[in-house]
Design goal:
Helices cover 78% and strands 0% of the residues. By secondary structure, it is an all-alpha fold. It has a domain of 44 residues. It is elongated.
């Protein structure tokens, strides 16, 4: 019969062996993620060359003072309205149809260009005559639609700026 085992020797790695194993794991991770690490280093280099890293480093070193200043600015009475308005503007921009905005911006730019070509003198007769121009009628129809939509929203929400 076999003898019973009374003592089990547990192998404890030395500090040098633990470090070698940790380095091996890190090297394996680096090899497996070479492209991501290279890209990250390129980004860090660009941030460093533009001075952004220095600014962030300075910000982190003085984070307590900066935090106190930021909180002081945020606690000003008008700042709450500013933040709410900024959030509402971001929501508005997000709800806008990009094609419509593009068309509107192109129309505004074209209108500004045309405005620059005017000689500045408009008689009543010329103004009335311009009402027959299809481009002028399209602009008036667009503005009328805009005003109707805006008025409908005011009436729906019982909001007025009077």
């Amino acid at each position: 019969m076999a003898k019973p085992i009374h003592h089990i020797e547990k192998r404890v790695p030395t500090k040098a062996e633990e470090q070698a194993e940790a380095i091996g794991e890190i090297m394996s991770l680096i090899a497996n993620n070479r492209e991501a690490i290279t890209t990250s280093l390129e980004i860090l280099q660009e941030l460093h060359s533009t001075g952004v890293l220095d600014a962030v480093k300075g910000l982190l070193k003085t984070r307590e003072k900066v935090g106190v200043l930021a909180m002081g600015q945020l606690n000003q009475p008008n700042m709450h309205n500013t933040i709410k308005n900024a959030i509402n503007m971001v929501k508005l921009v997000g709800e806008m149809d990009p094609e419509k905005v593009n068309t509107l911006m192109s129309a505004v730019m074209s209108g500004l260009d045309q405005m620059g070509e005017q000689d500045g003198k408009v008689s009543k007769w010329r103004l009335i005559k311009s009402m027959n121009d299809p481009d002028v009628l399209a602009s008036i129809a667009t503005m009328t639609g805009f005003l109707q939509g805006m008025g409908k929203e005011f009436n729906t929400n019982q909001k007025s700026f009077h």
